[in-house]
Amino acid sequence: MMKRNYQTSEFWFTVVSFVFSGLFILGIIKDFDQKEELISDISHGVESVFLLSGQFVVLYRYMKSRNEEKKAYADLELAKEVSRQVELELAKRELEEKKTKKPKEEADDEHRIDLDGSGKADGDSED
């Protein structure tokens, strides 16, 4: 993708040169060396502005990406902590359920019925 004219350094160097050449032609700047010196100085200033603004853009993008990485890391750590909390809570519930449940055999014995009055529940075998 091509940049717009005003976004290129070549555009601004051309504008500076055009302005000072115009001032020379109009007689505002009388000395040719003065014109060349002004063009050089202003071009150097424009170049410095472009270089500094480029560095600020790079710094801004770096800081933005670091902030995004830090946020993602913090979100990941939070998710891990929540996961640990959920696992701990599930383990506690499972332990509580085990404590409150009776063994399966005892629960089965309670549900058997003594049909013949022998004291043994129906389905018990005589050994």
Give the key terms.
3 helices; 127 residues; rod-shaped; mainly alpha
Characterize the structure shown:
This protein is mostly helical and 127 residues long. It has one domain (9-100). Helix content is 74%, strand content 0%. It has helices at 9-25, 32-100, 104-111. α1 (9-25) runs antiparallel to α2 (32-100). The model has no long low-confidence stretch (mean pLDDT 79).
**Hey, roughly how much beta strand do the residues contain?**
under 5%
Number of helices: 3
What does the main sheet amount to?
none
Query: How helical, in percent, are the residues?
Result: over 70%
Shape: rod-shaped
Low-confidence stretches: none
Distance between the termini: 93 Å
- Mean pLDDT level: 79
> What class, by secondary structure content?
mainly alpha
What letter string, H or E per element, gives the SSE order? HHH
Radius of gyration: 43 Å
Domains counted in the coordinates: how many?
1
How many strands? 0
Short description:
The chain is an all-alpha fold.
Topology:
Blueprint: H1 9-25, H2 32-100, H3 104-111
Helix pairs in contact: 1-2
